[in-house]
Amino acid sequence: MELFWEVATQLMEPFVFLLILGGVTAGLFVGAMPGLTASMALAVLLPFTFKLPPLHGLVALGAVYMGAIYGGSFAAILVNTPGTPSSIATAFEGYPMAKDGRALEAIGLATVSSAIGGLAGVFFLLVLSPPLARLSLQFGSAEYFWVAMLGLTLIASLSPGSTLKGFLGGSIGMILAAVGVAPIGGENRFTFGMPVLQGGVEMIVALIGFFVIPELFNMAAHGRAALAEVTLESRKRGTFLGAIRTVFSMPGNLVRSCIIGEIVAIIPGAGGSIANLVAYNEAKRASKHPERFGKGAVEGLVASESSNNVTVAGSMVPLLTLGIPGAPPDAVILGVMLMHGLRPGLDLFTVSGSLTYGFIISMGLAALYMIPVGLLGGRLIYRVIVKTPHYLLVPSIALVTILGTYALRNSLSDVVIMLLLGTSGFLLKELGVDSAPIVLGLILGSIAEMGFVQTLLRGTALEHPWMMLFQNRLSQIIIVLMVLSFASPYLSSGVRRLKKPLDKPPEEASE
Amino acid sequence: MKRAVLLALSTLLIVTAGIAFAEYPDRPITYIISFNPGGESDITARLQEPFLEEILGVAVNVNHKPGGGGAVAWSEFQRTAKPDGYTVIGTNIPHIIGQPMLRKDSGYETDGFDLIMWFHFTPNALIVRADSPFKTLKDFIEYAKAHPKVVTVGGSGTYSANHLETLRLEREAGIKLTYIPHTGTGPLAPAILGGHLTSLMNYSMLPAQLGDKVRVLAVASEERVEALPDAPTFKEQGYDIVGGAFRGVAAPKGTPKEIIAKLADAFTKTNKKIAEKQLPLGFVMTYATGDDAKALVDKMRRNYSDVIVDIIKEREKK
Amino acid sequence: MRRPANTDLLSGIFGLAITGVFWWGRGDVGRLSIMFPHALLFLLAAFSVALVVKGLVRPERRSIFAEGDRAKIIGSCAILYVWVVAIPYVGFFLSSVAGFWGMACYLASSRRKVTPLLAAKLFCVVLAEVTFFYLIFAKLLYVPLPTGAFFQ
């Protein structure tokens, strides 16, 4: 109880309030700009946090992190470009909504879902850390490989046209991920004699290219920005109360997405970029109207945005208990903690309890502050985008894209790669090969390669090294999930044909 | 009016004269880190930044150019950076020794830098989980002798300090291990704590951070590391293995000597200031500047050359 | 004039072309570095061939590039490439002002006549916007923007 009051008084300070508010706002801006990532924002902030007391430094970093993951949804909804890889699925539904004049509704839903997701992550972190940390240690190289394979089954539902073309896109993404120094083996491949390609195709560079460039060309071709004026209906639904009502009308979806977000978050290296896609996919499979997905289904938007904000506090579970950074921004936070002499582990929750709990709860506050900041900021950004004539909007987006891509690794070559990938993405899209599976392949390609080769190496002493892939219980569970996930579209259509609708679709089991 | 013109002219004169005779440094210095934010190199640079700014009196801007285990930034630096002292880059041993020897198209040369300083050293350490049956290095080596290739050793990266040290342990002890590279230090903690690997060959920071969850069988330093007083060195246990990663900073080839000296001085003073923060984390501070810095590269190159030659031979066989 | 294209066949051929390029670019590397990419190339080839076969047997025909003004796509694409390629030569600031302004005038011409007055107005907007972002990135975030023959 004493601890509680200590934490509460710390967080009541007006300075802390301003830190969180400022952090969330800055994070929102960073997240909304394609190319500016949460980890980059945190890195820029680092020197300032060294001048602050540890708690204030961590609070600022946590707030920026939370805001950035949420801010990615603005770009996704308004210009069909995920601002961070954590909002890829948000674009699938948010953008069609905005095109229908439902932009404000989409922003309101994203805001409320993000805040709920952020709070859920804090809840998991406060209550379930020890068991979740133990679970996260179960993931070894073989499990990583199978998780990546499980992720690839999403391709089937991410490619609305031909599944075959989706898999072609997925393979293209995976081969792009293989460019550069081999993660294992250490030699250069696919560098075509250019030293700069050693660095490979950075996932966010490809993400920007594949999503922004085709959209720019579309706007140029149509001679107008794609957003429609907001309808009165949407304005009503976009208010705080309206959005709350919609979001809480789907409690199953919300709970499912938060749990998915948490599980993905504790797998080190996965993070929000995978969580939002998995949650989206599950929402689609559980929906009574999967045919509405891709055309502005609110369930998909809510699933994506709630799950990705769970990962912010969620990935702190392995970080605070074991010192394992689950996502790149976590590495920065770990660095700050170590520099302040805070060693992750049990001591963190007991000896420096008021600091740790203060940090955790401040993330919850950050999630709450997102609501006013986001609703106001969202309206503002929306107005700017709608009022700008297309001949200024298109080059403006191009400018921000070029800057963001460059700033990611301070590399002009990345900008050229982004343009080339974007142009090919545009051509491929016309041929029916969608960008989403390509980007998914890029995200999962290196995880799959690491897992596969590491597992074979671990099995060097076995007679058949590949047996190592199937040995662990967790691997076997993931394999079963994968088969279920792959077969479920066929299963459920079979079930429907039997005309015996079940109360719960069979794929619920795969949660 | 006349006075105003005169004033403007004289200001202009003073400003131009200032540019001509200004003492280095008179504008911001860019400090490039060739790894991701949050890594050891980045955190160190962030710690150094305020002290460097105070000593040099100009802004020091840290920015990142990650990729290819550092090679992307190093190759571009050697190709494009101007030798005027306003751009410096973080460098690492053994990366800058191993990569140009072992990779095609690495795009840079080990000796293509003007080294300013090596400011710290993180020795390799052989680590097992706290409940591992291997209590000492002897247990470990005996088991590995009896069971070739069964013992897995995780480390950060291929041909990294961790990898080369594992190969050297194999040579020195006459054993066969299975080295498993990971991307960076991050994924190693769950791999060892989750029991997915038998052991780790990683830098001294990891055991300092994981505390009593792991046991250090041996550290590859001359003397025991301050943060790990109970961890014996390889030398104490009869193996002449000393190695790890050195981090430092370099300027482009051809930078004037006085500028290098000035920067070396600033980094030395900074290093003394940040030592109290870095020592408990498992770092060993070093102060190699000037000829010492070059000598260190040559020494480490000799040190690792036999292992690297082995790797190249092995590769050509295939 | 516009016949629907056989998208299966075309994307299959595209896939085969990528397979070819990457097969040729593997480089001479060891087993560990290449085993996974080999598997990927095999998959890529398999999906491509499957698409080619489907394209020959039961093609999906669709008109491509049918929507909107194709000339505007090619035009803005060209401006974008020139913009980026010019950055290392004339520096970020100048090439962005030129690229931005060029693209704005070019796209505006589809809706209205670009009078000198409009062009001048656009130039002011462009200058302000590029300066704004330039300041944020170069001075606030310390991103070293590429310098060219002039300044940044």
Question: Gist?
Answer:
The complex is a heterotrimer of chains A (511), B (318) and C (152). Chain B is α/β, with parallel strands linked by helices and 318 residues long.
Helix content of chain A: over 70%
Examine the secondary-structure arrangement and name the CATH architecture of the largest domain in chain B: 3-Layer(aba) Sandwich
Tally of individual helices of chain A: 23
For the record, give the distance between the C-alpha atoms at the N and C termini of chain A, rounded to a whole number.
Answer: 36 Å
Mean pLDDT of chain B, nearest integer?
88
Index terms:
heterotrimer; A: 511 residues; 23 helices; disordered C terminus; B: 318 residues; alpha/beta; D-Maltodextrin-Binding Protein, domain 2; ten-stranded mixed beta sheet; globular
Descriptive account of the structure:
The complex is a heterotrimer of chains A (511), B (318) and C (152). Chain A has one domain (2-139, 147-471). Chain A is built from 23 helices and two strands. Chain A has helices at 2-12, 14-32, 38-51, 54-79, 88-99, 103-137, 141-152, 154-158, 163-177, 203-222, 232-237, 240-248, 251-266, 272-286, 298-314, 316-322, 328-339, 346-350, 353-387, 390-409, 412-430, 435-458, 473-497, and strands spanning 180-181, 188-189. In chain A, strands 1-2 form a two-stranded antiparallel sheet. In chain A, strand 1 and strand 2 form a beta hairpin. In chain A, helix 4 (54-79) packs across helix 5 and helix 14 runs antiparallel to helix 15. Chain A starts with a helix and ends in a 14-residue tail after the last helix. Residues 500-511 of chain A have low confidence and may be disordered. Chain B is α/β, with parallel strands linked by helices and 318 residues long. Chain B folds into two domains: 26-121 and 244-315, D-Maltodextrin-Binding Protein, domain 2 (3-Layer(aba) Sandwich), CATH 3.40.190; 122-243, Periplasmic binding protein-like II (D-Maltodextrin-Binding Protein, domain 2), CATH 3.40.190.10. Chain B contains ten helices and ten strands. Chain B has helices spanning 2-21, 40-56, 71-80, 95-102, 137-146, 161-173, 188-193, 205-210, 257-278, 290-317; strands at 29-33, 60-64, 87-93, 113-129, 152-156, 178-182, 199-203, 214-219, 244-252, 284-289. In chain B, strands 1, 2, 3, 4, 5, 6, 7, 8, 9 and 10 form a ten-stranded mixed β-sheet that branches. The longest helix of chain B has 28 residues, at 290-317. The relative contact order of chain B is 0.16. Residues 12-21 of chain B have low confidence and may be disordered. Chain C has 152 residues and is mostly helical. Helix content of chain C is 71%, strand content 3%. A two-stranded antiparallel ribbon of chain C has the order 1-2. In chain C, helix 3 (70-90) runs antiparallel to helix 4 (92-108). The model of chain C has no long low-confidence stretch (mean pLDDT 87). Chains in contact: A-B, A-C, B-C. Chains A and B meet through helix 3, strand 1, helix 17 and helix 22 of A and helix 2, strand 2, helix 3, strand 6 and helix 7 of B.
